[in-house]
């Protein structure tokens, strides 16, 4: 059977629902956390190596670039956590409809944005 519907293969013009973006970002934030875990383990190792290396790490954490990296890691962790809680709530049967999914995705985005601003204020 031949399907005569048009096929759009241009990824730049495909309109995804907000729930799709929330799902994609949930996966991306998980990958960011896996990669960041190596950086954080290195920082932990450096902080435990001795007083000199601990002082050096403190100097490194004072740089704007590393503050930005820590802000990004914390934002990814919060986004992943909020999205995970949304999935746990959906596992109980709450918000499984499309309207509930859209509301949940918007709440996750809003909570993450507020938390990212607060973390930025604390870091800087």
Quick structural gist:
The chain is mainly alpha-helical and 124 residues long. The chain has helices spanning 18-48, 51-60, 64-91, 98-123.
Kindly describe this structure.
With 124 residues, the protein is mainly alpha-helical. The protein has a single domain, classed as 3 helical TM bundles of succinate and fumarate reductases, CATH 1.20.1300. Helices cover 77% and strands 0% of the residues. The radius of gyration is 20 Å and the shape is elongated. It starts with 17 loop residues before the first helix and ends with a helix. It comes from Congregibacter litoralis KT71. Membrane-anchoring subunit of succinate dehydrogenase (SDH). Part of an enzyme complex containing four subunits: a flavoprotein, an iron-sulfur protein, plus two membrane-anchoring proteins, SdhC and SdhD. The complex can form homotrimers. Belongs to the cytochrome b560 family.
Major β-sheet profile: none
User: Shape from CA axes?
Assistant: elongated
Identify the CATH class.
Answer: Mainly Alpha
Structural class: mainly alpha
CATH superfamily: Fumarate reductase/succinate dehydrogenase, transmembrane subunit
Mean pLDDT equals 93
Percent in helix: over 70%
Number of DSSP-assigned strands: 0
CATH architecture: Up-down Bundle
Rg from Cα:
20 Å
Q: How many independent structural domains?
A: 1
Low-confidence stretches: none
Distance between the termini: 61 Å
CATH topology: 3 helical TM bundles of succinate and fumarate reductases
Order of helices and strands: HHHH
SSE topology sketch:
Blueprint: H1 18-48, H2 51-60, H3 64-91, H4 98-123
Helix pairs in contact: 1-2, 1-3, 3-4
């Amino acid at each position: 059977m031949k399907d005569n519907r048009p096929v759009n293969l241009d990824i730049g013009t495909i309109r995804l629902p907000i729930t799709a973006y929330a799902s994609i970002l949930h996966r991306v934030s998980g990958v960011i956390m896996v990669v960041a875990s190596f950086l954080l383990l290195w920082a932990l190792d450096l902080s435990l190596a001795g007083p000199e290396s601990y002082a050096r790490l403190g100097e490194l954490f004072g740089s704007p670039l590393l503050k930005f990296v820590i802000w990004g890691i914390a934002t990814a962790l919060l986004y992943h956590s909020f999205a995970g809680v949304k999935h746990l709530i959906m596992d109980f049967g709450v918000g499984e409809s499309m309207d509930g999914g859209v509301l949940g995705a918007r709440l996750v985005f809003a909570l993450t944005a507020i938390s990212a601003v607060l973390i930025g204020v604390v870091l800087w």
